[in-house]
Description:
By secondary structure, the chain is mostly helical. It has one domain (2-49). The chain contains two helices and no strands. Helix 1 crosses helix 2 (30-49).
Amino acid sequence: MRFLKRVFWILAFAVVTFFWAVAFQHGFSLQAISSGAREEVKSLLQMISGGTKS
């Protein structure tokens, strides 16, 4: 149970850090954060899968 708690906190930290960075890069409005997060997730998935950025 302690392991699951630690994994949860690490995942929560990663998610919050991701959205905080997106907010600073793309702006603090809800529309900017949602479109910026979509753009950044797409970029991350392309980097992970080895695809070329178009």
